[in-house]
Design a protein that fits this description.
The protein has 178 residues and is an all-alpha fold. It contains eight helices and no strands.
Length: 178
Amino acid sequence: MNWIQEVEKRIKRQNRILFAKDSLYLQDLRDLLGTQNHRVLVLWALDLAEESVQAWNQKHPDELRPMRAYQVAQNWSMGKIKMREAQRKILDCHAVAKEIDSLEDQAICHAIAQACSVVHTPGHAIGYPMYDLTSLVYHYGWDKCISPIEDRKAFYIDRLFYWSRQIDQIQRPWASFL
């Protein structure tokens, strides 16, 4: 079954998340994520989260919880704050998704929160693509999302390779657990 059939099946079942953690379409990305060190994954995830936060802020300038989650995740990754403070803001970002009607915007909130959670554990890294790709299906519609989905997945891989090559040149403080 190809990814289009997987997503179509999830739409028919009325799933809100249209890409599963174990999706065959995401297998190569999942494998690649598994080969990276935690710091690379944090840089990659926060890079993607920043882009999503900027798009969110354009659409919802008065709803600051996604931006705050991103900011605390940055600070947490540098050891400036503790997990509990960051965790609260990340959960607040997830909460935004429960308060809005737009499936696209719900997915974006979850994507941002998942990216921010990569600071805690690398296992959250696949969450960003699951939700971000879902938001693209809702944004473009089922009949026009194929190219944007495939381009976006290629972008994830490109950015992951970028951060993997840059990690030794990054001059920033890191939390002791990273």
